[in-house]
């Protein structure tokens, strides 16, 4: 079966949905912490940073992010697109994606699999279901 690959717009939409989800999670946790008196700032900061850092790598390892689910796209191993990426690949991929921002997507139209720089480095590929 021939694989189909998401275009830049679909990937952006997925990322936008994930950003909204991160904001929602932070609001929920903020409201939970507001129910307690004298929560130290370091607890809030640690929780919010943990959510931001862990969201994508953990969800990618166990299946897909909410944005990927909604858009019907998945991150898979480039060597075998039927297999999910492992935690090492997810942890390598995410900071590159965040750090490079839009620059990472410059390679999408230069290869047949529409792989971004963070996909090329981490050995991953995005596929459409």
UniProtKB/TrEMBL annotation:
<dbReference type="Pfam" id="PF06271">
    <property type="entry name" value="RDD"/>
</dbReference>
<feature type="transmembrane region" description="Helical">
    <location>
        <begin position="12"/>
        <end position="33"/>
    </location>
</feature>
<keyword id="KW-0812">Transmembrane</keyword>
<protein>
    <submittedName>
        <fullName>RDD family protein</fullName>
    </submittedName>
</protein>
<keyword id="KW-0472">Membrane</keyword>
<feature type="transmembrane region" description="Helical">
    <location>
        <begin position="45"/>
        <end position="70"/>
    </location>
</feature>
<feature type="domain" description="RDD">
    <location>
        <begin position="5"/>
        <end position="122"/>
    </location>
</feature>
<keyword id="KW-1133">Transmembrane helix</keyword>
<dbReference type="InterPro" id="IPR010432">
    <property type="entry name" value="RDD"/>
</dbReference>
């Amino acid at each position: 079966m021939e694989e189909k690959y998401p275009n830049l717009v679909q990937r952006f939409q997925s990322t936008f949905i994930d950003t909204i989800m991160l904001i929602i999670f932070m609001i929920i946790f903020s409201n939970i912490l507001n129910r307690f008196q004298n929560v130290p700032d370091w607890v809030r900061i640690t929780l919010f940073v943990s959510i931001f850092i862990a969201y994508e790598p953990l969800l990618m390892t166990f299946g897909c992010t909410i944005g990927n689910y909604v858009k019907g796209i998945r991150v898979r191993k480039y060597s075998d697109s039927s297999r999910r990426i492992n935690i090492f690949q997810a942890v390598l991929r995410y900071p590159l994606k965040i750090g490079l921002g839009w620059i990472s997507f410059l390679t999408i139209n230069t290869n047949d699999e529409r792989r971004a720089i963070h996909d090329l480095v981490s050995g991953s590929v995005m596929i459409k279901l």
